[in-house]
């Protein structure tokens, strides 16, 4: 079960690496294909704002990767749960304020990770 939780955590971290790349380095190119509902004339003016969002995603990814390399099992689980909770909250907020799709892409994988880590932590 620990391996499943680690794989989910790793995948959520990779997802945030993708968000980082998209928002920091590909906002005016590839992001246009991903965010089709976003007005095309706003990509260039919002480039620095998107890069800021990408930086925040890098912190989430770093924390999730960090949770996978911590030697202490107790700390590893707690750090993973903290960063997955941050991702879940961001996904819920995005779903409420921007698009419900954000919950499915970002929040749901984090929620799944939280559930599996809780099963590991509490031995259920």
From TrEMBL:
<feature type="transmembrane region" description="Helical">
    <location>
        <begin position="79"/>
        <end position="96"/>
    </location>
</feature>
<feature type="transmembrane region" description="Helical">
    <location>
        <begin position="55"/>
        <end position="72"/>
    </location>
</feature>
<keyword id="KW-0472">Membrane</keyword>
<keyword id="KW-0812">Transmembrane</keyword>
<feature type="transmembrane region" description="Helical">
    <location>
        <begin position="102"/>
        <end position="120"/>
    </location>
</feature>
<keyword id="KW-1133">Transmembrane helix</keyword>
<dbReference type="Pfam" id="PF06993">
    <property type="entry name" value="DUF1304"/>
</dbReference>
<protein>
    <submittedName>
        <fullName>DUF1304 domain-containing protein</fullName>
    </submittedName>
</protein>
<dbReference type="InterPro" id="IPR009732">
    <property type="entry name" value="DUF1304"/>
</dbReference>
